[in-house]
Design goal:
alpha+beta, Multidrug-efflux Transporter Regulator, Chain: A, Domain 2, Arc Repressor Mutant, subunit A, 2 domains, four-stranded antiparallel β-sheet, two-stranded antiparallel ribbon, 10 strands, 39% helix, elongated, DNA binding, MerR-type_HTH_dom, WH-like_DNA-bd_sf, Homeodomain-like_sf
Length: 205
C-alpha cells in the first residue's frame, strides 16, 4: 500500500515540511518512490517517521541522525521501522529483545530499560501538534498493519476510511445510509471517517 504525503503526515505526526526536509537530508527516503513526485510512503516508512516525530519532541534532529549513524556503524542497516527506538532521558536507544535498550545517541553501547509502546500512543510533537494514536485514530477508524497494508479502515471491516468519507462528504449519502453500500459501517463510524479525512487534508494544507 502506498501512502500519499498528506496521509503520511497525518499518520506519522511529521509535518509536510518535515517530510520534505527529511527526504532532502536523507533522514528517511520513501521506500516506494524516492526519486521523483509523487512521493509515496510505505507503512514501514510511516512507523519510522512516527518514531522520528515522537523522538523529535524531546531530542534534536542532530541526535536522531547520530542514532541512525550509530545503527549503521553497528551493522544494523535494515529499514528504520525494524528497530524500536526509545527515549533514554536525554539520549536515544534501540530496543532489544528482553526489554533492554542500547544507547545509540549520547553513550553508544550502554544498556537501559525502555519501551516502544509510546510511539504508537497519542503524543505531541515539538511544534505542539497533537498526533492521533496510530492504531485507532478515531473510535470508528483503525489501522491494522495486516489489513490493506496498514491503510486506515472502518473498525472491524476492510472498507477504507476515505471511501466512506468521500461517500458522505458532499451530502448525497447520509451517514445513516452508508450501511446500504457497505454493510457493517455504522453512521458514527462514517462520521469518524469523514472527520479523519478532513483532518488529514486540513493539516496538510
Amino acid at each position: 500500500m502506498a501512502f500519499p504525503i498528506p496521509l503520511a503526515s497525518k499518520m506519522s505526526g511529521a509535518s509536510v515540511e518535515q517530510l520534505a526536509y527529511w527526504r532532502k537530508t536523507n533522514v528517511l527516503i520513501p521506500e516506494i518512490e524516492s526519486s521523483e513526485r509523487p512521493y509515496l510512503y510505505s507503512f514501514r516508512d510511516i512507523v519510522a517517521l512516527r518514531t522520528f516525530a515522537w523522538l523529535r519532541g524531546d531530542h534534536s534532529l542532530q541526535l536522531i541522525r547520530q542514532a541512525l549513524a550509530t545503527l549503521r556503524e553497528m551493522d544494523l542497516v535494515d529499514h528504520p521501522s525494524t528497530y524500536k527506538l526509545v527515549k533514554l532521558g536525554r539520549s536515544i536507544g534501540v530496543h532489544h529483545p528482553g526489554a533492554e535498550a542500547i544507547d545509540v545517541g549520547r553513550e553508544p553501547g550502554q544498556a537501559v530499560i525502555g519501551t516502544f509502546a509510546q510511539v504508537f500512543a497519542e503524543f505531541e510533537t515539538v511544534n505542539k501538534r497533537r498526533v492521533d494514536p496510530l492504531l485507532r485514530p478515531r473510535v470508528g477508524v483503525e489501522v491494522n498493519p495486516g489489513r490493506l497494508g496498514g491503510w486506515p479502515t472502518i473498525v472491524g471491516t476492510r472498507v477504507p476510511y476515505d471511501v466512506v468519507a468521500s461517500l458522505i462528504d458532499d451530502g448525497s449519502v447520509s451517514p445513516e445510509d452508508v450501511g446500504a453500500y457497505y454493510p457493517g459501517v455504522t453512521a458514527s463510524a462514517a462520521l469518524d471517517a469523514l472527520d479523519y479525512e478532513r483532518s488529514v487534508h486540513g493539516e496538510a494544507a
